Amino acid sequence: MHATWIMIATIVFSGCTSPSSVTLSSNSFHQWTHVGGEATYSWDGETLTAQGVAQRNGFLVSPLPFADFELNLEVKITRGNSGVQFRSRVDREANRVVGYQMEVDPTERGWSGGIYEEGLRGWIAPLTSEQVAKLTFKVGEWNTYRILCRGDHIQTWINGDKVTDMHDGTALRGIVALQTHAGDSFIEWRGVTIRSTHE
Question: Is the pTM of this model over 0.90?
């Protein structure tokens, strides 16, 4: 499978940042790589738009792995499913990404911000019906996502509300990737910033 590119969009290192940080900009996209199912991408100078067109998940993979880090971005999903992979790895033989994923779930279930382990254990931090954070995610609108990883401590926020706070040491380092789920998924991302906090 391959990715279809519209208007050359590439996610690279921003010009003035250190190698320990990565942003999504018009100058940086070419250093990210596509893995998995076919997807269509477009870039308007500020927003990356992705649409799934295959029966396999597609991923845009960061040029660097991260151990301890803080990730911030905005995501809007109109239909389908998505997620933000972190501390993950590329399985070259299977042509897929496996590892932790912060969920983007527009369904009535509302598990956005929960932690799913793609290709491995499945759900390791689903949301319960009592969690107020389920109400903060807005389908079809921009939502801020934040991930903070320090050692085995993993925390996620949506729109400033903490969603997940857990300890899991299965993977302490890995790539970041933006998932375009199989099928008719339509997702937009902007303001992607990953900053190493390793001292």
Answer: no
